[in-house]
Write a structure and sequence with these properties.
By secondary structure, the protein is an alpha+beta fold. About 25% of the residues lie in helices and about 25% in strands. It has two domains: about 55 residues, no CATH class; about 90 residues, no CATH class. Strands 1, 2, 3, 4 and 5 form a five-stranded antiparallel beta sheet that branches. A hairpin with a 5-residue loop joins β1 and β2.
C-alpha cells in the first residue's frame, strides 16, 4: 500500500469514527431501554472523537451562560451539591435525565431522582433545590454572578424545605 492510500484510509476511518461518536450510533441515551444492547461505546470510549458540538455557537462580551446545579436537602437540614458521579452517569445523562426533569417540575421526577440516589447508597433527600449560577463574558474575562435558587422540588408532598 502506498502512502497516499494509507493517508486516505486513515482519513476515512477518522471521519467515520467521528460520525459514529457525533451521532451517538454506539451509545443511545439510557432512557431508550430497548436500545440498551447497542450501548457499546458511551462517552468517552471513542476519545479523541467528540460526541458534542464543540463550536455550535460563539459568544461575545456581554453574553452569558447558566450553570445549573442540583442540591439535595436532607431531613437533618444538611445540604449536598450533587454531581453526575453520585448517580453513576455522564454529565449529559445527569443533565438530561436528572437535572432538567427536576428543574422543569415533571411529575414524580424529584421522587424518582431521590430513589435513584438512595439505590446508589446515598441518603434519601426530602427535597431538591435547583440553583443557577450565571457566567457572564466580560472584556477582562469571565465573571461569575452569585448563585440563585430557582426552584424547590419536593420528594414527598408532606415534606417542606
Amino acid at each position: 500500500m502506498n502512502g497516499r492510500a494509507a493517508a486516505t484510509g486513515f482519513l476515512v476511518a477518522a471521519l467515520g469514527l467521528q460520525t459514529v461518536a457525533g451521532f451517538k450510533l454506539l451509545a443511545p441515551p439510557l432512557r431508550f431501554t430497548a436500545l440498551a444492547p447497542l450501548r457499546v461505546a458511551p462517552s468517552p470510549t471513542l476519545w479523541p472523537f467528540l460526541d458534542y458540538d464543540m463550536y455550535s455557537r460563539s459568544m461575545e462580551a456581554g453574553s452569558y451562560a447558566d450553570r445549573w446545579m442540583l442540591v439535595a436537602l436532607h431531613s437533618d437540614q444538611s445540604e449536598r451539591l450533587l454531581s453526575p458521579g453520585d448517580f453513576g452517569s455522564t454529565w449529559r445523562e445527569f443533565r438530561d435525565e436528572i437535572l432538567w426533569p427536576v428543574r422543569d417540575g415533571h411529575e414524580g421526577a424529584a421522587s424518582r431522582v431521590a430513589t435513584r440516589l438512595e439505590q446508589r447508597g446515598g441518603a434519601r433527600p426530602v427535597a431538591f433545590r435547583i440553583e443557577r449560577e450565571r457566567l457572564v463574558i466580560a472584556e477582562d474575562g469571565l465573571q461569575v454572578l452569585p448563585r440563585a435558587a430557582v426552584r424547590w422540588a419536593l420528594v414527598f408532598a408532606e415534606s417542606t424545605p
